[in-house]
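wait is this the right file?? whatever heres the structure
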């Protein structure tokens, strides 16, 4: 029997709003792909990202364009050649993983060799705002062991100081979202080191980061927008200390596993991150993130409403997914 595919656009309200240097939003817009065969259905969720030229309609159309090949039983490895990295391929790839697990009766965790699954400590993201507002967010979450702080403007030193004072015991990741410049990066890095920051994500625009090869890194620097697939990695050696792997960038779990393993071979630290999505999007990433140096899979914690069933969060610990959700 041919596989049947369905594509659905869904929206989940964010608790309040979510702001980064590129703008704000009040809901998570996601695309869900479901693939069915012989009474089994696998699902995958993706988040179209404007930074990469993606739209809800465009991603839906890209998935629909694969309908005949999916019906014909395209493999995950063939999918890597048939589609570019991005959200559309992620939704299909994760749906195929889920479907295969259900048909074979073998969990995805077993299939990828993630035998000793455990709860992971995830970062919790503080939305960009004025120093007083960010300090209030930090104070409210000061008991969390790992905070991710959105920055990327002209007053970042004030923001870093405000957050650090409000959460003195938390480890902190700074996410500049490409918002720093050659003129301020050295001073910002020095201040971040002084404040005991643990990691800095993508301080400079992708493709305009050569200065990172020629300055000291008093805090480890992690590539985000600069890395999508394993083939990107060799060019980042000497620029970055770690890479942030997101399923929506890599184009699915299949490509993300290749990216993670190659990153380890090249000596990069590994962070597994996410867009703002539901537990369905986080579930495969939780399996990918077993053993990662940093985990940022707090998407459902930022939502006013998640899927049911969803992932189980206890404070900042996220447990592996139940197969009723995915995998």
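ok assuming it is, sequence goes like this
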């Amino acid at each position: 029997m041919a596989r049947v595919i369905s594509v659905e656009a869904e929206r989940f309200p964010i608790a309040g709003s979510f702001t980064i240097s590129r703008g704000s939003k009040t809901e998570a817009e996601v695309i869900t792909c479901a693939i069915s065969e012989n009474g089994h259905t696998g699902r995958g969720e993706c988040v179209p990202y404007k930074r990469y030229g993606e739209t809800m309609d465009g991603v839906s159309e890209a998935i629909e364009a694969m309908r005949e090949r999916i019906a014909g039983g395209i493999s995950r490895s063939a999918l890597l050649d048939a589609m570019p990295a991005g959200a559309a391929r992620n939704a299909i790839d994760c749906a195929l993983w889920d479907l295969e697990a259900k048909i074979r009766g073998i969990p995805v965790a077993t299939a990828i060799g993630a035998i000793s699954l455990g709860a992971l400590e995830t970062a919790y993201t503080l939305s960009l705002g004025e120093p007083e507002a960010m300090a209030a967010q930090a104070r409210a979450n000061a008991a969390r062991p790992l905070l991710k702080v959105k920055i990327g403007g002209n007053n970042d030193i004030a923001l870093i100081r405000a957050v650090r004072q409000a959460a003195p015991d938390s480890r902190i990741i700074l996410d500049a979202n490409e918002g720093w410049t050659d003129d301020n990066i050295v001073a910002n890095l020095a201040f971040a080191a002084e404040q005991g920051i643990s990691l800095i994500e993508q301080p400079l625009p992708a493709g305009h980061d050569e200065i990172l090869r020629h300055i000291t890194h008093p805090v480890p620097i992690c590539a985000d927008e600069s890395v999508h697939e394993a083939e990107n990695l060799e060019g980042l050696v000497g620029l970055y200390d770690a890479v942030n792997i997101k399923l929506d960038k890599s184009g699915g779990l299949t490509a993300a596993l290749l990216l993670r393993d190659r990153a380890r071979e090249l000596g990069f630290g590994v962070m597994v991150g996410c867009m703002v999505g539901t537990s369905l999007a986080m579930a495969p990433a939780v399996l990918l993130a077993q053993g990662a140096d940093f985990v940022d899979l707090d998407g459902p914690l930022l939502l006013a409403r998640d899927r049911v069933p969803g992932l189980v969060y206890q404070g900042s610990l996220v447990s592996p997914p139940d197969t009723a959700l995915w995998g």
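The two ends are 22 Å apart (CA to CA). so i think its the right one actually
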